[in-house]
Amino acid sequence: MFLRIAVGGLILASSLTGCQARPTSAMPVGSSDHTLSSGGLTRSYIVYRPARLPARAPLVVMMHGGFGSAAQAEKFYHWDQEAATGHFIVAYPDGYHRAWNVDGGGCCGLPARSGVNDVVFITAMVKAIERALPVDPRRVYATGISNGGIMAYTLACRTKIFAAIGPDSATLLGTCPHPAPVSVIAIHGTADHNIPYNGGEGDGPGHIDGPSVPSVNAAWRRTDHCAVPTVTTVRTVTTSVAQCPAGRTVELITIAGAGHQWPGATPNPIAERLLHTDPPSKALNATKVIWQFFATHPR
Questions:
Q1: What per-residue confidence (pLDDT) applies to 12?
Q2: DSSP per-residue letters across 86-126
Q3: Paired strand residues for 243
Q4: Domain 33-295 classified CATH 3.40.50.1820?
Q5: Range list of β-strands (E), 103-229
Q6: pLDDT tens sequence across 49-106
Q7: Which of 23, 36, 87, 141 has the fewest CB atoms below 10 angstroms from its CB?
Q8: Are 47 and 61 spatial neighbours (Cβ–Cβ below 8 Å)?
């Protein structure tokens, strides 16, 4: 998902692991741009702060897809509007050269080839926001589409700071030796050719080759020691919900005939033409569905 491919770039420093927040302006009401230093790179992100926040507010990290950007994710997926109603904070990080290093599967682009540590960057971003705003550390969440959704899985495999994740049009790549016990809601279309629902190599620009979406969901049910899921189907949407100890839930929403897209998003004809992505499904509003799930699943 993207608006344009970035031209030019930054020069990698020798260290790609250190992370230090730069002095930044206050985080005012509305959208504001911020940077921090991570691994010798200046990394950027957008924070949306609604007019009203509780004393301990949830934080949602929304990660764009490959070749996307923070600004594109903010514009097309409607998380600001949801945050204004739900009174939570949204962070939109920018991938290095518009992609995320998900620690496996050859994905994706320059971040993977250069060994950029996006886990360290996003963790530092969350900490910077927690210093500036009244974030409830028990209610920090990660969601994303495509490469950004894969990154949400990676964060759950490599950190313990998220209460739940919500990948869309994504799979799990690389190893996950110590997955965090998190709640998971995944959304995927059965006609996704970029990241096939049944696994194997997709025909999109990233040539993602990963396990099937149901098998990834089943792996997280095992991690969370969940009960057998309950499955319901309404028109084109099939929902599998497994209840787990400690109030966790692992859910999979499958949309028959939907492709590689964020359901309910604003259509992006440029991305559809250049990346062979698909028009957003109208079967549901992914932003509302994922937020409702997050809102009821603290850590």
A1: 31
A2: HT-EEEEEPPBTTB---SBTTBSHHHHHHT--HHHHHHHHH
A3: 249
A4: yes
A5: 135-145, 164-168, 183-189, 200-201, 209-210
A6: 999 999 999 999 999 999 999 999 999 999 999 999 999 999 999 999 999 999 888 8
A7: 23
A8: no
Instruction: Answer for the pair 71, 45: CB distance below 8 angstroms, yes or no.
Output: no
253: closest CA among 147, 135, 168, 139? 168
Q: Minimal CA–CA distance to 35: which of 102, 116, 94?
A: 94
Query: What mean pLDDT is reported for the chain?
Result: 91
pLDDT tier for residue 117 given thresholds of 50, 70 and 90? very high
Nearest one of 186, 129, 135, 134 to 156, comparing CA atoms: 186
Peptide bond into 108 cis (omega under 30): yes
Decide: 142 and 61 in contact? Cβ < 8 Å: yes
Q: What sign results for the dihedral spanned by CA atoms 219, 170, 241, 182?
A: positive
pLDDT digits (tens, 9 = 90+) for 135-161: 999 999 999 999 999 999 999 999 999
Local confidence band at 24 (pLDDT 50, 70, 90 cut-offs): very low
Neighbours of 285 (CB within 10 A): 18
Residue of 135, 42, 44 whose CA lies nearest to 88? 135
- CA-based torsion, 67, 95, 155, 17: positive or negative: positive
